[in-house]
Amino acid sequence: ISYISSAYAGSVSDRAIVERSNLTKKTEPGDSIMADRGFTVQDLFAPIYVSINIPAFLKGKTQLPGLTLLKDRKLASKRVHIERLIGLTKTYKILKTDLPVYFVPLGREIFYVCCILCNFRENIVSADA
Asked: Which residues form a coiled coil (predicted)?
């Protein structure tokens, strides 16, 4: 895990989170961000040559074109690793239940420590993936 944003309420948009976290300043030309369909901030990253990889969707078609299908399969294989990493963070007991009210002010720090600890665990992605 190399970046963790601050926590935001569910009503805060992806755009607002990207802008408030200065994520565009934490990326470099050639970086690639994996995102879901609703992540509509490509215009913020295009000027700094950071690509946003979003899975294609059919839009009324019955099948994706060959190159798009191949790209999506590769993207999905990488996405599996991210889902596994998210699952790994949830193995810490403190993150398995609702945070007690007296820990809420420390919520970000608690999550941060759990993510950092994940970096010390056995690799979940092989070097050739």
From this structure: none
